[in-house]
């Protein structure tokens, strides 16, 4: 699929930057992914990962300011479903190397929170911050699309 | 991709031609539904049951297709019934007036037992 | 998790209340109305609407977005349909806007189709706007300054 065609196939969701709205994004995008033929267990992965990414954007990127917005852009590529979560970057993401593992956290290294990124990275085929023109952070999640149309049935 | 979410199949039970409709009834359903109707009609069906299964989404374009079937059914002197609709779509069918032209039953079994009595 | 719109507003009670709007931009391609239906249904369920009201909302929003794709935007892939969902304490407001490739015939917005008459015609359609009016509590069609068609629908939350 060409870039222009996939751009046309994108959906954009914009939410108030307020905890609770991440579940609306989750349900909306999960329903979309189901219609695209993603396997049920991948959709569960997507739901958890997307919620974590939205909460990061609401809490950290936008510092819980309800007048700000979180954008969720969802693009359908030939082999992948790509989701980008954008905040308004009140607080830019500062990379701190690899997220701490559960073992490091349980042994008292670092905060018990901040498990979101670790969780996301294990649930998606691709996950990470991407550079973006203009203010704000952009976190990208991607899922491989397989067995489209239920070829295995 | 998002267009085609309907599977249509036909079968016969106790003298009733059943058209099973799995999925969404929208503008994309027209060819499949009309083909299935033509198939059972060509086989001489007098009683036609549209058996809705997992129909999460029936829109106005889908309703227009069903009104087309109603037209054909009266032209071909057949009888039409529907079963398996959710409460919501039963309401929509009554609102639109489709209930005047097709008996509405809760499920296939009820349709088969009661539809036949109208003969 | 319960989606309590009131509780979510508590932190901002001292400030000017911020209208909580979810905005969805969709390609003008049939099938994508389902994304709007699913999103609205997720919101409405969490606001506490009964199942039958959620179903009515889904049907109405599906019709509105389908109209925008087919008529307003003439299936033009370069255009978008914008859906805005505003959750208030006692109602959900849904606005659907297209880019007005073709203006909506105002006459269609009030017509009441009759099935007996439709059976005689080749065109069996024309039920969409009527359904929206039947299913929603408030419905208003308008034209944006840019020329796009807009419909604003409200569904009341009955407690």
Descriptors:
heterotrimer, A: 153 residues, alpha+beta, Heat Shock Protein 90, five-stranded antiparallel beta sheet, 5 helices, disordered C terminus, C: 159 residues, 35% helix, 23% strand, globular
How would you sum up this structure, described in words?
The complex is a heterotrimer of chains A (153), B (119) and C (159). Chain A has 153 residues and is of the alpha+beta class. Chain A has helices at 3-8, 22-35, 40-61, 102-106, 116-123; strands spanning 11-16, 69-76, 80-86, 126-130, 138-144. Chain A has a single domain, classed as Heat Shock Protein 90 (2-Layer Sandwich), CATH 3.30.565.10. Chain A has five helices and five strands; from the N terminus they run H-E-H-H-E-E-H-H-E-E. A five-stranded antiparallel sheet of chain A has the order 1-2-3-5-4. In chain A, a hairpin with a 3-residue loop joins strand 2 and strand 3. In chain A, helix 3 (40-61) packs antiparallel against helix 5 (116-123). Chain A is globular, with a radius of gyration of 16 Å. Chain B has 119 residues and is an alpha/beta fold. Chain B has four helices and five strands, in the order ββαβαβαβα. Chain B has helices at 30-42, 60-75, 87-96, 108-115, and strands at residues 6-13, 16-23, 47-53, 79-83, 103-105. In chain B, a hairpin with a 2-residue loop joins strand 1 and strand 2 (16-23). Chain C is α+β, with helices and mostly antiparallel strands and 159 residues long. Chain C has a five-stranded antiparallel sheet with strand order 1-2-3-5-4, with helices on one face. In chain C, strand 2 and strand 3 (91-97) form a beta hairpin. Residues 1-13 of chain C have low confidence and may be disordered. The chains are: A alpha+beta (153), B alpha/beta (119), C alpha+beta (159). Strand 1 of chain A pairs antiparallel with strand 1 (21-27) of chain C, so a sheet runs across the interface.
